[in-house]
Design goal:
Layout (H helix, E strand, L loop, with lengths): L2 H4 L3 E8 L3 H16 L9 H18 L6 E9 L2 E8 L9 H4 L5 H11 L3 E6 L6 E8 L1
Antiparallel strand pairs: 1-2, 2-3, 3-5, 4-5
Helix pairs in contact: 2-3, 3-5
Length: about 140
Amino acid sequence: MSAQLETLPLRHVLTLPTMGSAVRIARETTEQVLAEWGVSRRHPTVDPALLILSELVTNSVQHAAALSPNVTVIYAAGQDTFAFAVHDRHPYQPLLFSAITATGASGLGTVMELTLGLGGTAVIRGDADGKGKSIWITLPL
């Protein structure tokens, strides 16, 4: 995690089996966590954040389940920032920024368009052993 993310005081971690229901549970948990942290469901960042999260968890379920029995969502927030990561134990690291220019509809392209459109950032951090990764999204609140 970057130094900026390490300064965010609010934290929550959710680990789920890498299966279809993980998408719904991760989305519902995100709504609950944000509400507990005082972020209104009507805040303009919440709906795009839920869509971004859903796309990333869906990608883990569809593409990483064979090597990653679990998917983990890590949440962090501060006064003006909401960050989350979706982690799986599949070594493939997609090229985030090329997803924007790729032809055809892409969940990752949607993730990047929404993230950048909100003034956020997206990075991939590989696990130290090279056998997994986290995709971190940071959005302004």
